[in-house]
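INFO worker-7 received task bundle
INFO bundle size: 2
INFO processing item 0
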Amino acid sequence: MRKLIESTLVSLDGVIEAPERWARFDEESSALALEQLGGYEAFVMGRVTYEKFLANWGQTTGNPYNDLITVMPKYVASTSLTETTWNATLLGPDPSEAVARLKDEPGKDLIKYGTSRFDQTLVRDQLIDEFHFWIMPVVVGSGQRLFEDVDTSGLGLELIDEKRLRNGSVILAYASVYTSTNASTSTSAATSTSR
């Protein structure tokens, strides 16, 4: 069974909105991001993320990171889209069931970028196995915050790995430990962020 990993860029004051405006990647962090992305099979995302990614990267070529995003399969949760492009497939009327099926398939782990409204469903249904937070050394001031509008009352986090980068960023990896009445144990074992 493969895992669903959520990786999110976060400012020191907890902002996740519009990281393209404030997240700075140097050579080391860019190489690490590309290496990690290559360790995943496909993306899972909501409609807003899909449309933003498509607008920002759908026509971009010549950058290894963007090129890899383009060729990777993308599974999109949406109640309004009827069709997709850019190697994307709609998850259908029950996205939780579809994600659970994807996790049951063989292959490399799945990746979801950013905390979004879709997390309300994924956390509720205990489908995210790990959270990787890239803490950036910047104070943004305003914008959507990490886990804003997501009920995390049944979610616990167990630190499983940490990595410091030369640019001052810190990557913290947490295993999800679901504590609601429907959960019995942690959904994931300790792994490394270097995959």
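INFO item 0 finished
INFO processing item 1
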Amino acid sequence: MKFNKKVVICMIMILSMLLGGCGTSLGSSVKKVKLDPDNPTKVTIWHYYNGDQLEAFNKLIDEFNGSVGKEEGIYVEGANFGTVNELKEGIVAAVKHRTGAKAIPSIFAGYADTA
């Protein structure tokens, strides 16, 4: 299976940001928060990926959830909205609290002009 390089780089950046918030830097006065692996923090990612991109994205999520996520108490859940426009409509509906809309996701992957 051929992985789309942009999708893999995007996932690495997203996961780095998620994990970057779990620790502290040297000299920081912020206390380190230890998440509970028995009661994981759920991170929802809405996206528009299909085909090979969707397969690669889901594989990365599964690998993360089964390793670092499991150890650190983070569970990532991906939700496919089909197309960029459907994703945009879902986000707008969530933000405007429209009847039947899903809760606003933790993260969404879209184009800058539609974000």
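INFO item 1 finished
INFO post-check item 1: The beta strands are 41-47, 74-80, 107-108.
INFO post-check item 1: The chain has a mean pLDDT of 82.
INFO worker-7 idle
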